[in-house]
Amino acid sequence: MRGIEYRGLTRIEGPVIITEQTGNVGFNEVVAVYDRNDGRRLGRVVDMNENWTAIQIFGNNTGLSADDARVEFLGKPMELRVGRGLLGRVFNGLGEPIDGYGEIISSTCLDVNGLPINPYARRYPKDFIQTGISAIDGMNTLIRGQKLPLFSGNGLPHNRLAAQIVRQAKILAEGGEGQFVIVFCAMGVKYDVARFFLDDFEQSGVLSSVAVFLSLADSPSLERLVAPRCALTAAEYLAYEKNMHVLVVMTDMTNYCEALREVSSIRGEVPSRKGYPGYLYSDLASLYERAGKIEGSGGSITQLPILTMPNDDISHPIPDLSGYITEGQIVLDRELFQRGVYPPVAGLPSLSRLMKDGIGEGMTREDHKDVSSQLFAAYSKVKQVRNLASIIGEEELSGGDRQYLTFGEKFEQIYLTQDEYENRGIGRTLDLGWQVLAEIPRDELLRVKREYVEKYLPSSGAS
What we know:
The chain starts with a strand and ends in a 7-residue tail after the last helix. It has helices spanning 134-137, 158-168, 191-203, 227-241, 253-266, 280-288, 317-325, 334-338, 368-392, 399-416, 426-437, 450-456, and strands at 5-7, 11-13, 16-19, 29-34, 40-48, 53-57, 70-77, 79-82, 90-92, 108-111, 122-123, 128-130, 142-143, 150-152, 170-173, 176-179, 181-189, 210-216, 245-251, 293-294, 300-308, 328-331, 351-352. The strands form five sheets. Strands 9-18-17-19-21-14-22-23 form an eight-stranded mixed beta sheet, with helices on both faces. Strands 1-7-4-5-6-3-2 form a seven-stranded antiparallel beta sheet, with no helix packed on it. β4 (29-34) and β5 form a beta hairpin. It is built from twelve helices and 23 strands. It is elongated and about 85 Å long.
């Protein structure tokens, strides 16, 4: 059913148009805009007052004339058609199928803006997710229902790491193992990046369990603001209606924030840090907080957002605010990458705040917490010794300090480094942790219980 059309615009400012019509108009309402040749493009209401309404167009303004354009308010928010047919399909950033297989056969449409989850209905995340990657499983454990962003930089292998996690991730819980379905969302990425993920999904046999939302670099930039909301709406349907475990991978959140800054600038809003709008925090939270588990549903949503830090600056507003909202971060290190370490996960800046609730006896292994803590402490000492060696020379170091240098080398080459198709179980990861800890004198293993040292530490270790 068509709504009432209004002819004429007050002005056109890039992808934002202004009309005087304000009656019966709602915020985020979907709008159809027609040019003089009846060409139709969609938009949404982004601002209004008693005298005018601002509409953001998902596309360009080519062919639009302030005198001849017609505006139709559709009286509903942007919606996504959902159903079991979501999996194995490819959509654009507006949730429209682009794989040539037609529309999803379903009568269920959901508001892409989502609904806030009642905090009382949330269940605390606790189930261990085994990614098969030692740097994550052993020291920065991912938990089902967690949001754990991947902080990277231009040229670093974050896409390879994300694809490996998608291939290998499985849930280890007291009730047994569980597998994920994947919702993958690309925002402003190049075609070759999107092709890499699609090819990897197909070759690894998981494509039939993936719903893909692509807003590529040549798509309208404003489409990037809707793409993650469509993806998360699909994830919520699969998790909370179909009781599936959903892993949501979103790349690149930096491109999303750039689009948000662009819209804010067009609307004439007062900029905050580095030109980003003051509501960047709350806008990111509206996406990240859609992860989790809720009462009454057996499903869950686990988020793995990927963001490239401009100039590798972890204090930049995007990673800075993301770190406040999410439960930790996995940081990729350029120095490790240049030395040939894959995955180049930085040992000290990386963190998983929910790790303590998903490890230990009955979930992973009794010594997991102690091994992780000792590895962090020892690698921190390695950083100090390396700084000292750069000043006085390695030959001037004490014997104990040289042992820590040996530990550091083995930690990076044996524990961190692995092939991108190597899937390590948690037992193997912890055994490798003990193997590298053997380079440290036993009397300096202060963060592990003595019974664990006697049980797990190789007898040939340092004394």
